[in-house]
Amino acid sequence: MESSSNHGGIKLLLAAEHEAQQIVNAARTAKMARLKQAKEEAETEVAEHKTSTEHGFQRKLEETSGDSGANVKRLEQETDAKIEQLKNEASRISRDVVDMLLKHVTTVKN
């Protein structure tokens, strides 16, 4: 009788060990699935962040490049206006400068 009781106890222990192994395997599988899902979500978030950052960078680059072209045009217009102003000023005083130079060149001091 003791042998059948021992045999039943062994079977019970083996069944419990088998059930525990199934629980551990199920937990391991669930953990691996969660890790895989977390990895995929992280990769998606990284890709979204990278895309967002790249779009922001491209937008800033376009804004500053556009400003650069506008700045070049503005500077060209300011330069042209300044050149025209200098030409007008030179033509206005050129006769006075020539007269002053002739006066100093032709005046003899003793």
UniProtKB/TrEMBL annotation:
InterPro entries: V-ATPase_G. It is found in: Vacuole membrane. Keywords: Hydrogen ion transport, Ion transport, Transport, Vacuole. One of its GO terms (cellular component) is vacuolar proton-transporting V-type ATPase, V1 domain. It comes from Brassica campestris. It comes from the Eukaryota. Catalytic subunit of the peripheral V1 complex of vacuolar ATPase (V-ATPase). V-ATPase is responsible for acidifying a variety of intracellular compartments in eukaryotic cells. Subunit of the V1 complex of vacuolar(H+)-ATPase (V-ATPase), a multisubunit enzyme composed of a peripheral complex (V1) that hydrolyzes ATP and a membrane integral complex (V0) that translocates protons. V-ATPase is responsible for acidifying and maintaining the pH of intracellular compartments and in some cell types, is targeted to the plasma membrane, where it is responsible for acidifying the extracellular environment. Residues 38-63 have a biased composition (Basic and acidic residues). PANTHER family: V-TYPE PROTON ATPASE SUBUNIT G2, VACUOLAR ATP SYNTHASE SUBUNIT G. The keyword Transcription regulation does not apply. The lineage of its organism: Eukaryota, Viridiplantae, Streptophyta, Embryophyta, Tracheophyta. It is a peripheral membrane protein. Residues 38-73 are annotated as: Disordered. One of its GO terms (molecular function) is ATP hydrolysis activity. It holds the Pfam family V-ATPase_G. Belongs to the V-ATPase G subunit family. This is V-type proton ATPase subunit G. The keyword Transport applies. Its main location: membrane. V-ATPase is a heteromultimeric enzyme composed of a peripheral catalytic V1 complex (components A to H) attached to an integral membrane V0 proton pore complex (components: a, c, c'', d and e).
